[in-house]
């Protein structure tokens, strides 16, 4: 049926709940899993262990949630003003009709997995004193 040319009696009338449920299904199916880069703002860390925040850029923002089990795996502490890349599923919070990201991974922008591993190794070696200038030895001359 063509809803734009249907008579008023042929058009489906949605309840608010039905419309939000349909919109949620469309969003979650179309954007199954995505990555989004932005700046953290409005960070909230309630006692539940979940974190709630907005990701924003110069023109827009989107609400985000990261549940406790995923938040524990972060290699850094999220803070307002930090630029991050979030891996997430797009969803819709049906009770308010707000669409949001449900994040399961987050990394600092510009610091990918390899950079993070490098920084951890560098820190470990620093703690072992391997970068101490007093312990350096001269490189033997090539003969």
Structure summarized in a few sentences:
This protein has helices spanning 16-30, 68-71, 113-127, and strands at residues 34-44, 51-56, 61-66, 83-93, 98-108.
Please supply descriptive tags for the structure shown above.
143 residues; five-stranded mixed beta barrel; 5 strands; elongated
Notes on the protein architecture:
The chain has helices at 16-30, 68-71, 113-127; strands at 34-44, 51-56, 61-66, 83-93, 98-108. By secondary structure, the protein is an alpha+beta fold. A 5-stranded mixed β-barrel has the order 1-2-3-5-4. Strand 4 and strand 5 (98-108) form a beta hairpin. It is elongated.
Low-confidence regions: none
Number of strands: 5
- Shape summary: elongated
Helix content: 10-25%
Assign the CATH class.
Answer: Mainly Beta
| N-to-C SSE string, H for helix and E for strand | HEEEHEEH
**Strand pairing plus helix content: what structural class?**
alpha+beta
Q: Gap between N and C termini, in Å?
A: 87 Å
Number of domains: 1
Q: Mind describing the biggest β-sheet?
A: 5 strands, mixed, barrel
CATH architecture assignment: Beta Barrel
> What would you give as the CATH superfamily?
Nucleic acid-binding proteins
Enumerate the strands of the largest sheet in spatial order, edge to edge or round the barrel. 1-2-3-5-4
CA radius of gyration is: 24 Å
Strand content: 25-35%
| Number of alpha- plus pi-helical segments | 3
- CATH topology, by name, is OB fold (Dihydrolipoamide Acetyltransferase, E2P)
Mean pLDDT: 87
């Amino acid at each position: 049926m063509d809803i734009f040319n249907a008579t008023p009696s042929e058009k489906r009338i949605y309840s608010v709940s039905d419309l939000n449920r349909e919109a949620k299904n469309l969003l979650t199916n179309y954007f199954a899993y995505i990555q989004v880069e932005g700046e953290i703002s409005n960070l909230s860390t309630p006692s539940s262990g979940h974190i709630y925040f907005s990701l924003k850029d110069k023109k827009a923002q989107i609400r985000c949630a990261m549940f406790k089990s995923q938040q524990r795996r972060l290699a850094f502490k999220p803070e307002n003003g930090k630029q991050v890349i979030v891996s997430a599923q797009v969803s819709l919070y049906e009770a308010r009709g707000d669409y949001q990201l449900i994040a399961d991974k987050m990394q600092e922008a510009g610091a990918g997995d390899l950079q993070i591993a490098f920084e951890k190794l560098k820190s470990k070696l620093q703690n072992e004193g391997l970068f101490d200038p007093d312990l350096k030895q001269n490189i033997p001359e090539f003969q």
